């Protein structure tokens, strides 16, 4: 049964899909690198094809023809030697070969040929010349195309002697192939450099758009001007229009909330004034508590709805920022330890909103724990802050639910006792509006760890 399953799974299609997934993991992630690959890969393939055609076809054809001509000259010398044997005739043949054919010949005493040499790595000329000697001369021979780089040595066994020929190497193969290779490599480098310069110019506007969108998400005012190709400029103009619509929506919401806040605060002020004029009694004191609770709830609702609208990011010193947070918590009777690690303590955040975020986390810990520890770490990319306590913690199943507005725990721990259930929701909203997030986990102190992580 397992063999059948294996045969079904390992089909050619599944193997191809598996290969495609593995190849996708090796592909570069950036658009610039992928664009370069799209440009360079066809160029390299084309050059390889041209090299194959030249080396295996054109060069082999030229080498074969040159080897044929060289072998014909050697065969003619052998025929002349057979027609006029003798020392004087051999000397005249050596002179003619050197003056007319640019080769040195020598008639050695008859004897065995040297042992065969190993085949060279680049054996086109060796194969072509050997084939021509077998075809035209048909006698035992010995060939050395490696020993001396500029020469070829050939020995052919004759009836009465051994003919030794030393010829120039370029007489048997096309010696100008390196010019083609250099030209091919040179043109490839020029094309690659042009592709790199062109793609860098095309990718730069996309990176500018990405940086502008990231800065806008962090609450900063990016200086962005659409540029580049038509499609990239269209995306840039769409981003600018989207930013304007978001800003108008935020301004409208802020104006509406300010109006609502003013009207409701006016009514609460009237309630307080009426209660102040009433005689002191248990009922009036209960009404005062209700009015105060209503005012706290109103402030929480407005803070959640308003978020950090209208506030711009600014540079703050996180050390001083955390010290102020510690002093505020200690004024409410909490014991807080603060630690910071990092070379640079300067970060760009919406200061008021970020303080509200951390204050909500510290308040949540203060209401349920005796000991609180704040650890901050600043690296080149992120600011990470851990708020640990030794309280009862929050069950794992409810650690995402507590970030929902108006959600309140019934057991173990209530993140906003006597409040509205908006503390953690406001904190996460602030963190996400600055490009970060908040997560909950187990604390080394035994309680809850709230981790704020925002880009710097």
Automatic annotation (TrEMBL):
<dbReference type="InterPro" id="IPR036890">
    <property type="entry name" value="HATPase_C_sf"/>
</dbReference>
<dbReference type="InterPro" id="IPR003594">
    <property type="entry name" value="HATPase_dom"/>
</dbReference>
<feature type="transmembrane region" description="Helical">
    <location>
        <begin position="31"/>
        <end position="55"/>
    </location>
</feature>
<feature type="domain" description="Histidine kinase">
    <location>
        <begin position="259"/>
        <end position="456"/>
    </location>
</feature>
<dbReference type="Pfam" id="PF02518">
    <property type="entry name" value="HATPase_c"/>
</dbReference>
<protein>
    <recommendedName>
        <fullName>histidine kinase</fullName>
        <ecNumber>2.7.13.3</ecNumber>
    </recommendedName>
</protein>
<keyword id="KW-0902">Two-component regulatory system</keyword>
<feature type="transmembrane region" description="Helical">
    <location>
        <begin position="179"/>
        <end position="199"/>
    </location>
</feature>
<dbReference type="InterPro" id="IPR003661">
    <property type="entry name" value="HisK_dim/P_dom"/>
</dbReference>
<keyword id="KW-0067">ATP-binding</keyword>
<dbReference type="GO" id="GO:0005524">
    <property type="term" value="F:ATP binding"/>
</dbReference>
<keyword id="KW-0547">Nucleotide-binding</keyword>
<dbReference type="InterPro" id="IPR050980">
    <property type="entry name" value="2C_sensor_his_kinase"/>
</dbReference>
<keyword id="KW-0597">Phosphoprotein</keyword>
<dbReference type="InterPro" id="IPR036097">
    <property type="entry name" value="HisK_dim/P_sf"/>
</dbReference>
<feature type="domain" description="HAMP">
    <location>
        <begin position="200"/>
        <end position="251"/>
    </location>
</feature>
<keyword id="KW-0808">Transferase</keyword>
<dbReference type="InterPro" id="IPR004358">
    <property type="entry name" value="Sig_transdc_His_kin-like_C"/>
</dbReference>
<keyword id="KW-0472">Membrane</keyword>
<dbReference type="GO" id="GO:0005886">
    <property type="term" value="C:plasma membrane"/>
</dbReference>
<dbReference type="GO" id="GO:0000155">
    <property type="term" value="F:phosphorelay sensor kinase activity"/>
</dbReference>
<keyword id="KW-0418">Kinase</keyword>
<dbReference type="InterPro" id="IPR005467">
    <property type="entry name" value="His_kinase_dom"/>
</dbReference>
<keyword id="KW-1003">Cell membrane</keyword>
<dbReference type="InterPro" id="IPR003660">
    <property type="entry name" value="HAMP_dom"/>
</dbReference>
<keyword id="KW-0812">Transmembrane</keyword>
<keyword id="KW-1133">Transmembrane helix</keyword>
<keyword id="KW-0997">Cell inner membrane</keyword>
